[in-house]
Amino acid sequence: MTSHLGRTFSSAEVYGIDLSPVPAVHAQPDNVKFIQGDATQLIAQDNRFEAGSVDFTFSRLVMAGLKGWQLYVRRVAQMLKPGGYVEMQEPSFAYFIDGTEVSASWPWLQAFSTAMNSRGMDPLAGGHLARYMQNAGLVNIQVRTYEWPWGDWKANRGHEEVRRFGTHLGQTMPATWQGLLGKMLDGQGYSEERMNEFLQACHRDMQPREGMYMSYYVVCGRKAM
C-alpha cells in the first residue's frame, strides 16, 4: 500500500512505518521512505510527523503488535492537517457461523484474548475503531464491515470473487493461528499439557466450516476543519 500511494501521488512525501525492517522486494518510488519503529512513539518524536502536517494516514492489520490503541489513534489525529483523512482496517478476533458467534466457547481464544489485553492490545480492535476515532475528535466517521469467509462456502452462495481468498484462509490460518497462540501465551503460566490442549483445539476450531467467518472493519474518519 505504501508503494501504491507513492506511485499514485508522485508529488507527495509518503512514509511507511513498521516494527520490523521492510525487505526491498521491489523497487520503490523515489518519494517513498520506510521507517522502522513503533508508530505511536514515532508520531510523538519524529519531526516528519509533527502536528497538523499530514494529509492522509492508512494502517492495516497492526493489531497483533500495537499496544495502546486509543493513544495511537489520538496521535494519528493530532498529526493530521485540518480536513485530513485517516483510514484503518482491522479484524476482530471473534468467529461466527451464519451470524451466530461460536468462538465465545473456545477456551484457547479466550486465553489468547486475555493475554492480548494484559499486554495493552485489543483483540476486538476492528469493532472498536469507530469509537477510538470518535474519542480522538475525528468526524465524518464511516464504517464498512466485511465477512472474511473460512473456506469457499461464501463463493458457493453467489460470491465467486472471494473463493480464492476464503480457500486461502481455510488452508493457511489453522497453522497461522497455532503460531500466534504459542507466541501470545508464552510466559502466561500455562503448563505444557494445557498448551498442547489449546493448540489441538485451535487447529480443530480453525478448520473451514459452512457459514464460518470473522468480521473485518474498514473505518475512515476526518479531522475537522
The secondary-structure class comes to alpha/beta
Oligomer: single chain
Helix content bin: 25-40%
Sketch the major β-sheet. Answer: 5 strands, mixed
User: Can you give the mean pLDDT?
Assistant: 95
Shape: globular
Note the run of SSEs as H and E.
HEEHEHEEHHEHHHE
Instruction: Using the CA coordinates, give the radius of gyration.
Output: 19 Å
How many individual helices? 8
How many beta-strand segments?
7
Low-confidence stretches: none
Query: What is the CA-CA span between the terminal residues?
Result: 27 Å
Defining key terms:
single chain; 5-stranded mixed β-sheet; 225 residues
Please characterize this protein's 3D structure.
The longest helix is centred in the C-terminal third of the chain and has 23 residues. Strands 3, 4, 5, 6 and 7 form a five-stranded mixed β-sheet that branches. The protein has eight helices and seven strands, in the order H-E-E-H-E-H-E-E-H-H-E-H-H-H-E. Helix 3 links the parallel strand 3 and strand 4. It is an alpha/beta fold and 225 residues long.
In short:
40% of the residues lie in helices and 26% in strands. By secondary structure, it is an alpha/beta fold.
Write the layout of secondary structure elements.
Layout: H1 2-8, E1 14-18, E2 32-36, H2 39-45, E3 54-60, H3 69-79, E4 80-97, E5 100-101, H4 107-118, H5 125-135, E6 139-149, H6 153-156, H7 163-185, H8 192-205, E7 212-222
Parallel strand pairs: 1-2, 3-4
Antiparallel strand pairs: 4-5, 4-7, 6-7
Helix pairs in contact: 2-3, 3-5, 7-8
